[in-house]
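Our platform keeps sequence and structure together, in a single record for each protein. Such a record has a labelled line for the sequence and another for the backbone structure tokens. Nothing more is needed to write down the fold, since each code stands for a local backbone conformation. For reference, a complete record is included directly beneath this paragraph:
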Amino acid sequence: METPFPPFDPEGRTRFGRLGRIPVRVLIPNLVTLLALCSGLTAVRLAIEERIELALAAIVFAALLDGIDGRLARALKGTSKFGAELDSLADFVNFGCVPALMLYFWGLNEAGSFGWIAALTYAICAALRLARFNVMLDDPDRPAFAADFFTGIPAPAGAITVLLPVYLELLGAPHGSWSAPLALVYCLAIGFLMISTVPAWSGKSLGSRVRRDMVLPLFVLVALYFALLASYPWAVLATCSMIYLALLPVSALRYRRLMAVHRAEQAERGARSQGEGASGAASGSSS
């Protein structure tokens, strides 16, 4: 009996027939991505119902899952083109549309049409940032050190930081007539940071190797962080957002120094190759 569903190939080819089997390790990262998407969409419902604290928890949970699915796919050797496309679409919904809607329901609606325009602009910036990221993955001219930096702040970081006005209000900051205009300007600023060329340190190199003597302290720090996040979520999220934004100039300065060293090395190699070519031509003419 024929199945009503066509054979699924995560690589986009047709090598799977009726009896083909896909390893579960390929499907697990995609299931985590779908779970993150469900969490992000649930955050919209919670924001509509004015349960803003639970909505923030849902979007933070989606951001945590987003950091897991890619690493899980690489660890299980289950990366696929389908998973990459699904992850990009989920990121646009979770970290582009959802934060914009949450901010609008929280207070941007008080600014009328200008508030909606700011929310739209942030979501569009997230889409453009993700599209640029997908294109730059195939850039063969990027130097090796550039893999440790994002061009513009990534979408998950943008989603967490753009909600800073909500964190501050939950910490006791007053919500007055000036709250909506300030949140509008801040929302636009974060959107433009996502599509900017500001180098943002990715931290990917931290997850490659850990010294043996640092394993236990690392466990303690991670446990302490999540304990603080569970006990004082708004204070931790607000602090992390402000620290992240404050470190962007440091990251940009570090990137410029590395780029200057890279260009100097390229110029030196070019001069050396020209010198070797000239000496070879001279020796050939003399013989």
About this structure: The chain has one domain: 24-203+210-256. The CA atoms of residues 146 and 216 lie 30 Å apart. The two ends are 80 Å apart (CA to CA). The longest strand covers residues 149-151.
